[in-house]
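Hi all, posting the design record for the shared folder.

TITLE: backbone redesign
STEP: 1 of 1
STRUCTURE INPUT:
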């Protein structure tokens, strides 16, 4: 394999137009959080060079959702598990005491 083949990235065809190829880019991502518009600069995405379809990096979207979660940064409630109530065995042999 030559060095040129090592530098050529794998090509992904566009699922929308089937003519273009998805190219990795960094874009400004916009989303709504309730009634607020949130913008995220330098967000990784794959963009079709023909129709412009955008597919966002799944790891980056998961990371962003985790950060924008309304409970982010709040301590979690520690739900303490308790043992079930102690039950005695009715058929268990009784210990023998020598007195």
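Okay, here is what came back for every position:
SEQUENCE:
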């Amino acid at each position: 394999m030559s060095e040129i083949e090592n530098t050529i990235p794998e090509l992904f065809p566009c699922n929308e137009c089937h003519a273009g190829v998805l190219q990795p880019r960094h874009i400004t991502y916009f989303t709504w959080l309730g009634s607020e518009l949130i913008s995220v600069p330098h967000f990784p995405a794959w963009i079709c060079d023909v129709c412009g379809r955008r597919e966002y990096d799944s790891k980056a979207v998961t990371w962003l959702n985790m950060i924008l979660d309304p409970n982010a940064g709040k301590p979690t409630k520690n739900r303490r598990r308790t043992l079930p109530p102690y039950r005695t065995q009715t058929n268990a042999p009784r210990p023998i005491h020598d007195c």
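COMMENT: Residues 24-70 form one domain.
Let me know if anyone wants the other runs.
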